[in-house]
Amino acid sequence: MALYEGIALIQEKQAVVLDLGTDYTKFGFTGEAAPRCIVRSEFWSAAERRVRRLHDYATPDELYDNLVHMLHLLYFRHVLVNPKERKVVVVESLLTPTLFRETLAKVLFTHYEVSGVIWADSPRLCALTLGTPAALVINIGAKEAEVAAVVHSCVVLQALVAQPLGAHAVHAELARLLDEDNGATLDLPDDVIEDIKVKTCFVSPLERALQWGSESPPRAARSVRYSCGARGSVTVTGRARELAAEPLFARDHELASLPDAVLQSLARCPRDARRALAANVVLAGGGAALPGLRARLAAELRRLRAQPPYAERLHVDEFRFHEPPGHGNALAWLGGAVLGASDAGAARALAREQYAREPRLRDWVCLLDNTPPHHPHRAYLDI
Amino acid sequence: MSHNVKILPGATVCEDCTLEGDITIGGGTVIHPRVTIIAEGGPIIIAEYCIIEEYSTIIHKKSDKQENPPKPLFIGAHNVFEVGCKLESPCGHIGESNVFECRSFVGEEVKIGSGCVIGAACRLTAPQTLADNTVIWGSDHHIREALEKQPSQLLQLDFLSKVMPNYHRLRKPNVHKRQPSTRQSTEPSPKP
Amino acid sequence: MAYLTQPDYVKYICSCGQLKPITSLYFCRHCLKIRCGFCICHEVDSHYCANCLENMPSSEARLKKNRCSSCFDCPSCFHTLSTRATTQQRQVLQDPAAGGDTKVESKQPKKMYYLSCFNCRWTSRDVGIPDQPVASGGWPERTNPHAARVNQLIDYYKAIAQQEKQEKIERERKKFNIRGKYITLTDKTGLTGAMARNIAGLPSSESSSSAIANFVPSVATAEVDELPEDIFTKEVNLNQITSMPQRLASPDWQPVSVSRLHPLAKLLSVKRSQRCRACDHNLTKPEYNPGSIKFKIELLAYYHVPEVKIISHEPVKPGEKTALFLKLTNPTGHEMQLRLLQPEDIPPPEEKEEPKSIDKSLERSLVLEKDTTAFKAIERQPNISATSRVTSPGVTLTLAQRDDAAEYDDDAQHDTNDIILWRKSNKLGVRLELDTSAEAVGGSPARALVALQYSYRNTVPPAPSAAACRDHTLYTTLLLDLGTVSSN
């Protein structure tokens, strides 16, 4: 570590790692084991006199303003460094909207004049924290759960599966259950719902979950009185505590549950990588922090593996889970911090000069960026 | 002005405060000016070493459910009622070493144990029971449990009982120590 | 005060197109343009602790992770913790047992300190942190449980990058094509790292190969932690579980149980200096002393641009002319000539200021080369949709310079005419006519647009070569918020 810092002093300023999530933003320095701050992705808008969420925007200009304000807050309130002439590692989902990426690049390069940006996708970064050649990354974020297979630091793109099964799905279900159990439309704000979830909810094991669906439901866990300030108090029943996370595992004919997403992703992977991937599963994202979620997911995967349509296609015998070196909600961030600290990452940065010459970002969906040099179509692209 | 106010020796009670009904004030307790204590529903007994600051209000409310004869509202020792706080209670027992911070409000159906802190401007109206050492603070009524009771304000009491007579007219203690008082609990414990 | 508590009725259009009240605008004396927080460059000037007002050099701040070493925040409610002293009773009680020598010493009971929060009454004793014998500092520090593993990972990837680089160099030399295992990680490598190693005289390859050899990838297990058995039967004590903000306040640990909350070392604050993007001159620069709220450089628009306030106005009616009363103030130390114009009458800025001398044009071209591209990108077309226009009276108003002594004269001079209501030192009350378009819908917000032309004397000592061009004619556009258009 000391060695690294010595080099860093000669080389350049320590880069920062930025992960702008839907709910929480993680921001800190490369080479460190945890972000300096994990704050809600929102800021106080003086002109409107209200708190604005970063991801609430209607026009590109609005997004630009949001990003400027958010980054100002992060740089000058939390991390306290000059953005100028400093590299940034941007941790992004593979499914980040193009508008968001491009606006972020514009803000970073023109408004904050950073010297370079390293664009890195979260599955690869999560895999980076393990050091294994293959990893199946299940990232449960605020809005979506993404399953991606990473083999030798390459994302198997056709095996990318995303379902809207993030923390918000759990929140919605919890709000519904609370309304039902209290017999009133409570209309609790998001942060209260989140607090109830964090403090009381858990994911029940598979057998119990099946019992809930059957005729004889099990004896519910203890219910809790949750007092929410001046608004009075709410009863959180054992049923609500247990079943709030069930939407993640609810199967229908579309097979759109979280374990299905994992198995579908595996089935789309190359046959020879599947076993290695199944033996290297890692859960990331803040949504994965619910107690019992890992155990339940493991049990579900082991059960569904033997059932159609996966039984005859998958040929995977065992699922093994990793214990990553960091908290789930900042795991992708941690990967970014590791990547940014090694020279390999720094060398992949999009430099400011390069952006000034050609303001274009590499993107995996763009044919210009994903056609190999010897591909017959390449000639048509390089005009 | 009711004549049922019993002030035990050692208590410092300013004249400029409203005391109505059957009130007993324990020794060592300091009552600042402009305090309102109304015992309309039944007697109020304030134990020793309490501090009741300016503009605080303690009301023993009338209620239909009340037994006959009405149970007293007993306020334990070492309680601190800060400026402008309000306590309305039809019955019950308030433990020791609680702190009612400035402009806090404790409604009728709240039971309070010992060592609790009701934060500044917190309004407790919903029926609830505060376990010992509960701390409530902030506009969202965050709750936590403290490990130990709040430290008592003996130094402050000492200071107030010395300084108060220099600036305010005081009410004279009208109950003497040896005289058997109405209730055992009101008697100041023979502390040095 | 009105600017703090009331909505912004009068907004100026910044040179970047943002609409801001005069109090959040700056005035660059070198570009002679209005700037705002959006279009200037912010820089960290100095670090300080907002609680103890102690300055911290930025190198030290970096070492301490931008945390104050003596101040702490409450992990429960984030209020600042206070240090409280107690006399240790045990010491006193031991007195008789102790020998005669120690008796003198223990006459003064030993003071012990703990941290306590006055808001939520959290104390460091709640989580079992032992009391400290010194008032500040000495609190146990914790390290991230994963720090060692993360460092291992970093070393490993650095070694791989190193190896890749060397392989690549060799490949170049031998024209021997092997595709590395981790090719995607390092498909584009620079030489900076290797060069830095050479410069620093560090061993290059030996250590890296050992780092690769010794690295153990994370091991996955088939067993996963099941839920604790008692979760279905145990009563939940909400007070024992931390909330999300409490967890995220210490990202390294994210404690789940209240009993694992530790005092948070207070995050430092920064003093910022602000710079004009176009000319790189400082617009504000704070004094170094954290206790001082003054500035060394303070180019606020409030001190340079005429201030406009609405005194009163008649209800705005569609298609009608209504009266509007404004107060104009000259904040500068020089007499100011002021004209009210229509926004369209403002001459385009570039043509207006033709280079006076070759030097100046050269300077400007240098500046242009420097950084106007970035500035241009930030610029935006202002969003002005005004229902009304202030009719320009076509006279030049003269505002006297600011005179602090004149504040005490209370007789307003009534040299009235059609426009001027009253005049008082550097202030002027004017009566204007407001022309509202007939299309304005009743109930919609009424906004009026007006442009100001004002003379400005630049007090910056001129560059030796530049001729004495100190008086400038400047323009600014304002948007007045006049409530809503009345419907009848």
Automatic annotation (TrEMBL), chain A:
Pfam families: Actin (PF00022). This is Actin-related protein 10. CDD domains: ASKHA_NBD_Arp10 (cd10207). SUPFAM superfamilies: Actin-like ATPase domain (SSF53067). InterPro entries: Actin, ATPase_NBD. It comes from Trichoplusia ni. Belongs to the actin family.
Automatic annotation (TrEMBL), chain B:
GO terms for cellular component: dynactin complex. It is found in: Cytoplasm, Cytoskeleton. Gene3D superfamilies: Hexapeptide repeat proteins (2.160.10.10). Residues 170-192 are annotated as: Disordered. Keywords: Cytoplasm, Cytoskeleton. GO terms for molecular function: dynein complex binding. Residues 170-180 have a biased composition (Basic residues). Residues 181-192 have a biased composition (Polar residues). GO terms for biological process: mitotic spindle organization. Part of the dynactin complex that activates the molecular motor dynein for ultra-processive transport along microtubules. Belongs to the dynactin subunits 5/6 family. Dynactin subunit 6 subfamily. This is Dynactin subunit 6. It comes from Trichoplusia ni (Cabbage looper). The lineage of its organism: Eukaryota, Metazoa, Ecdysozoa, Arthropoda, Hexapoda.
From TrEMBL, chain C:
Keywords: Acetylation, Coiled coil, Cytoplasm, Cytoskeleton, Isopeptide bond, Phosphoprotein, Ubl conjugation. It is found in: Cytoplasm, Cell cortex; Cytoplasm, Cytoskeleton, Microtubule organizing center, Centrosome; Cytoplasm, Cytoskeleton, Stress fiber; Cytoplasm, Myofibril. GO terms for cellular component: cell cortex; centrosome; dynactin complex; myofibril; stress fiber. Pfam families: Dynactin_p62 (PF05502). It comes from the Eukaryota. Its main location: cytoplasm. Subunit of dynactin, a multiprotein complex part of a tripartite complex with dynein and a adapter, such as BICDL1, BICD2 or HOOK3. The dynactin complex is built around ACTR1A/ACTB filament and consists of an actin-related filament composed of a shoulder domain, a pointed end and a barbed end. Its length is defined by its flexible shoulder domain. The soulder is composed of 2 DCTN1 subunits, 4 DCTN2 and 2 DCTN3. The 4 DCNT2 (via N-terminus) bind the ACTR1A filament and act as molecular rulers to determine the length. The pointed end is important for binding dynein-dynactin cargo adapters. Belongs to the dynactin subunit 4 family. This is Dynactin subunit 4. The lineage of its organism: Eukaryota, Metazoa, Ecdysozoa, Arthropoda, Hexapoda. The gene is LOC113501285.
